[in-house]
Design a protein that fits this description.
single chain, about 375 residues, alpha/beta, TIM Barrel, 8-stranded parallel β-sheet, 3-stranded antiparallel β-sheet, 15 helices, 11 strands, about 45% helix, about 15% strand, binds flavin mononucleotide
């Protein structure tokens, strides 16, 4: 049988070059049980911590350590645009009321239209420069083996990470951003094509990956975006990647924390249902299209920047989730949803990716 080992495996000290993508989603999409399951299967599990208070990040890291002694990672978002943003949710809401009354009024109108009682998001913390600094501090203090920066420039983390032997990965969605990751001095680069779930750019994986591989020089690259079975893994390897960063395929894992209704939406969705919208967070995000995303698009209002649009819509999402109205909440996922057919344990999803990769590589040897 074809072995599946690349230099990236040695760098990250894992058996197979398959990484569970960090997925924020208020801590639901990549809980410790899923992260540990992927690491225990021989890949690298990554905790998506972008929406979590520093204390929660710490607790989750410790929980992963209770469940596995294998390497794992923490993923945070480091958007540069947050420098001037207020540090509390209440202050952001006030700014929206004062400066963007038409957006505030449209949200109220959405509540009426969908007959949804108002219920502000329960957590007080909001993504801000201060929160990110605290999240980074915890991750460094806990000496997590791998740090991944989903958005933004990880250069601020690299020197401290290097001192404690932590590996740093940076996600990019364009060849230009790949160069920023190279300059930041990361240990590995994730090239995420537009097919991917969550925040995503405009360049498709087939065009992006070879360009990032070329820009990265000796730095290993992981392919991401639309890789939901072994054929995708093999294709990424063929394009020069040394591994893959897989999100959507693991969303439906039994160990994942999304409500079953949201997992079932992913199972049932076709590729065309997974659309990009700027209205959920203020940055382009791929998710299951629904009436709420459509209503925003029809409104003609521009999305506010993050964190304002994000805070606005987190209140709506929270209300929808609390009411069990999963059809009008946000459910991020990628175009690969079209090839996902059932909920399964993470180990089975992982084994499926591995087997499919080997079959594809073996088939190609015969060409
Ligand atoms: C539900 C969801 C949440 C995500 N949240 C984050 C995040 O917090 N940080 C991040 O770096 N990427 C995030 N992403 C993007 C993933 O890390 C990854 O790049 C993407 O899922 C890969 O494409 P795929 O979904 O086609 O596998 C998210 C993706 C999904 C589906």
């Amino acid at each position: 049988m074809t072995s599946l080992h690349t230099p990236l495996c040695d760098l990250l000290e894992i058996e197979y070059p398959i990484v569970l993508a960090g997925m924020g989603s208020w801590g639901m999409a990549t809980p410790p049980a899923l992260v540990a399951a992927v690491s225990n299967a021989g890949g690298l599990g990554v905790l998506g911590c972008s929406n979590l208070a520093a204390k929660e990040v710490e607790e989750r890291i410790r929980e992963v350590r209770r469940l596995t002694d294998k390497p794992f990672g923490v993923d945070l978002l480091l958007p540069a645009s947050l420098k001037q943003a207020p540090g509390s949710r209440a202050a952001v809401r006030q700014e929206i009321r004062d400066n963007h009354p038409e957006h505030w009024a449209f949200l109220e109108e959405l509540h009426r239209r969908f007959n949804l009682p108002e219920r502000p998001f329960q957590h007080d913390h909001v993504i801000s420069a201060e929160l990110i600094a605290q999240q980074i501090e915890v991750t460094l203090n806990e000496r997590v083996p791998v740090f991944a920066a989903g958005l933004g420039d990880p250069a601020i983390v690299v020197p401290q990470a290097r001192e404690i032997g932590m590996k740093v990965m940076g996600v990019c969605g364009s060849p230009r951003n790949a160069i920023r990751q190279v300059k930041a001095g990361v240990d590995a680069i994730v090239a995420q094509g537009t097919e991917g779930g969550g925040h995503t750019g405009q360049v498709a994986s087939f065009a992006l990956l070879p360009q990032v591989v070329d820009a990265a020089g000796d730095i290993p690259v992981l392919g991401a975006g639309g890789i939901s079975d072994g054929r995708g893994v093999a294709a990424a390897l063929a394009l020069g990647a040394q591994g893959v960063w897989v999100g959507t395929a693991f969303l439906v894992a039994d160990e994942g924390g999304l409500p079953d209704a949201l997992k079932d939406q992913i199972v049932e969705a076709s590729t065309g249902d997974m659309r990009i919208s700027p209205y959920w967070t203020g940055k382009t995000i791929r998710a299951v299209n629904n009436e709420v995303a459509q209503a925003w698009a029809d409104s003609g209002l521009p999305a506010l920047p993050t964190p304002h649009q994000r805070v606005l819509m987190e209140d709506f999402k929270e209300a929808a989730m609390a009411a069990g109205r999963y059809e009008i909440t946000m459910n991020a996922g990628g175009q690969g949803a079209g090839m996902i057919t059932k909920r399964r344990p993470a180990a089975e999803i992982f084994a499926g990716l591995l087997d499919g990769t080997r079959e594809t590589l073996d088939r190609m040897k015969g060409l």
